[in-house]
Amino acid sequence: MRVPAIGCAALLLLAVAACGGRDAATGGGTGGTAAAGGQCAGQQTTGITDKTIKLGGIYPLSGPASAYGDIPKGIKAYFDYVNAEKGGIGGRKVEFVVRDDGYQPPKAVEEARRLVEQEQVFALFQTLGTPSTAATWDYTNQRKVPQVFVATGASIWGTDTAHPWTIGWQPNYISEARVYAAYLKKEKPEAKVAVLYQNDDFGKDLLGGFKRALEGTKVQVVAEQSYEVSDPSIDPQMRNLAESKADVLLNVTTPKFGSQALAADAKNTKWNPLHIVNNVAASITVLKPVGFENVQGVVSATYYKDPNDPTWANDPEMQLYKQKMQQYAPGADANVPYHTFGWAAASSFHKAMEAAACPTREGLRDSVRNLKGVKVDMLLPGVTLDTAQGDGFPIESMQLMRFKGQRWELFGDVIDTRKEFGPLGG
């Protein structure tokens, strides 16, 4: 790539910015805070002052997973509300800088570098997607920049010990798979399952967890078809799966392909399997284009409150969310669950940051790995944030839901997979 000539002084400034990231908390540095003395001395304060905190997020605002672009709208609405009405987080106003990677890992690396080296963010709060997060976590951990509550459920974020600066938030895909396996063992103990999955770490993680959870049962996976995120359509894969005559279809996809799979299933009147769609493709925005009449009885699982569910009509947090979305994100539809997801994730960050012993990067890193029964009001009752040494999974509880009428309906109890199935991998 050709670099235009610039003056030596400008080059020096760029070099300082690029190498920044380990400011002494007791002085100097562009983001030093007076509060970060004593036990916090020498820790990183880039991107945080006594009055401000700067966060960076990376999302596919364009490309095949652009439906997820609604998430940062909910996050920004939460931070705008907290800034305007609560004085920020710990007295610090939050600036949230969002970058678009188009769901392309090389672009995610480029944007991570830009956020860390040019924008000088305190932390990366959410990089969306397993491929993008996997592409960036070596860099963020080398730079010792917190990469917290990444928007992907890959199990590696909670089991890996070489990347202490990166941690997930949502239930990992293996835990989610266990929930579906438990459901089938109880409701369809001799089910024959066909699986459509994304051919990357995301799809393979959930599929692998599903197969392991079925070991020793009579439930069988009888057909598998994968797709690439660059594929224009999954119709060929769906035709092949239909030939298996399976009585269950497990749909492990991102929104674009989840919608295509639901539509293909609806068109094939000769095949009528129980359709299970994974959580990340279970939004109303995925189902609506297919036609609600065509997705009746579809099953999924969730862990946060659905803004379309009248169960939460009088819930204080849901009422606050809808009011503040209208106030701070007037062009966004508060009934889109991805906005709610963003609100819940931002609220979780708020709790973790306030619990940090030091207002530093190290303080945040340690806080997110020491969460003890932290309640976040947008999560389902019974779902809390819990992490500890050797357990890097903040949320491992989910509840099943079935689509009925024009919305999802919860059924059964919240399933804590730690208690029901033991530690991940155990």
What does this structure look like?
- With 426 residues, this protein is of the alpha/beta class.
- The chain has two domains: 38-171 and 315-395, Rossmann fold (3-Layer(aba) Sandwich), CATH 3.40.50; 173-302 and 399-421, 3-Layer(aba) Sandwich (Rossmann fold), CATH 3.40.50.2300.
- Helix content is 36%, strand content 16%.
- The chain has 14 helices and 13 strands.
- It has helices spanning 8-19, 71-85, 105-118, 130-142, 156-159, 173-187, 201-213, 235-242, 255-267, 284-287, 316-328, 337-355, 361-367, 417-421; strands at residues 52-59, 93-100, 123-127, 147-150, 166-168, 192-198, 220-227, 248-252, 274-277, 299-302, 397-404, 407-410, 415-416.
- Strands 2-1-3-4-5 form a five-stranded parallel sheet, with helices on both faces. It has a four-stranded parallel sheet with strand order 7-6-8-9, with helices on both faces. Strands 10, 11, 12 and 13 form a four-stranded antiparallel sheet that branches.
- Helix 5 links the parallel strand 4 and strand 5.
- The termini are far apart.
- Residues 1-31 have low confidence and may be disordered.
